[in-house]
Amino acid sequence: MTTLREFEDALRDQGMSMALAILQGLKERDRAKRSAVAPARRLTGQKMTPDLARRILELHGSTGMTQQEIAFKVGVNQGRVNEVIKRGKWLDGDPNAPEAKARDKAKARIAAGPKATAPLRKPRPRADGKPVPAAERGKGGTRMAAPVARDAQLTFL
Length: 157
Known about the structure:
Elements: H1 4-14, H2 17-35, H3 50-62, H4 67-74, H5 78-87, H6 98-112
Helix pairs in contact: 3-4, 4-5
Protein name: RNA polymerase subunit sigma-70
Region (Disordered): 89-157
Organism: Lichenibacterium ramalinae
C-alpha cells in the first residue's frame, strides 16, 4: 500500500505541481476540520411516563428489538427499558410508587444544594492514652503510619 508521502514524492518527481497544490489544499482543509474538536453528543432522555412505559412494553412484545434498540428509538437509556420490562416500573402514574418517591427525593436533594462538609472526627488516643500529636494526624484526624527509620532491622521471634 502506498503512503501519502510516497504519492507526493511521485507527483513531485513527475513535475505535477498543480496536483501537489490540490493535494496541499485538501490536507489543509482536513487539518482545519480536525483542529476544531466537536463536543461529545449528549442525548437527553425523555421523562419516563406510564405512556412511555407502555410503548416500551409494546415494542418489546411485538418486535424482535433488543433493549438497546428500544431505548434508542424511544429516547431513554437501556437501564430504564430494562426496569420497565423486567420489573414493571413506571407502568402506573401513582405518586407513591417507589420510583416516583426516589425521583422526588432526588429533586429535593438537588433543590437543597450541596451539603456542608462533615466535621472532622476527634482523633483516637494512642495505646498509651496520650492524644496523637497534630503532626502525626492525617486527613480527617486519623492517625498516619509511623515513620520507619531507613536503617531499621527486622527482628523475628
